[in-house]
Here is the input.
Amino acid sequence: MTTLFVLDVDDFRPLAEVAAKDPDTTVRRRGPYLEVSAPGAIRVERDATGRRNALWYSSVAAVRDGRVSRWDKSELVVVPTGTGR
Amino acid sequence: MSSPERDRPAHTVRGVDHAAFPTFDPQATITFYRDVLGFPVVHATCALGWGPGDHPDFIHFFFDIGNGDRLAFFYYFGVAPYRDAGLPDLLHRARHLAIHVDGEEDLLEYRHRLDASAWPCELQVRHETVESIYVTDPNGYLMEITRPLRAITAEDDIDANVSVDALMEVAGEPEPSLEKFYARKAKLIAERYEGEPELVTFG
Here is the structure.
């Protein structure tokens, strides 16, 4: 499972909320973190999160079994390790 | 005398006593900090023949930057001005002093003071948890004035500690990268918060 961790504070919680709209994605609480998991890629559209620049680019706490393949002004994509986009 | 058995309070430091920098232009420095920004002069040590042989005479002067903290400068008489002409922009931006204000009104007041001077504000930006203005002082030092945008929470502090633990590990290995850092941090999170996590749904 591709897993993205975001800290469960008001600034970053919207990322998990937006990611959770994908039916393949589950969100669990692990300590102070929201653990966002999906069998494939995790995609988060920035506009849907409403995050300004600094928050958007500091929103990823950690990544397990995956890597950030795109993180620009419009989208964050975490893909399973060993895959392309 | 200290001993390992002695009970020590964990953390007894109390902020910045003073941060000190050399200046080769005391007139501009005093104008900038005292007259433009309004930082009171609170102390000056005038030392005749106290310094080493190549710069025995100096003035060490201090500005109050609030909270009892001070910003200090050394001016050495008879020393040719030196400037880091080849300083990479990365270092110029990374080395800076950030002075705290409590609110937006205070931040804007200092912005107005700068903008009305020969050293206008160069950048105003909302970071993750603070909003800041930046200016390069007459000595070429980057200075920031910053206000909090929100309170720092216990979660922020926990995350910071997991981050530096992951960084300690990754930075000691060959070819450290942010990708490796994220993976190591995920491993630390899993270790520290093991067990079946609770499912979260958003309303």
User: Anything to note?
Assistant: The radius of gyration of chain B is 22 Å. DSSP finds five helices and nine strands in chain B. The mean pLDDT of chain B is 93.
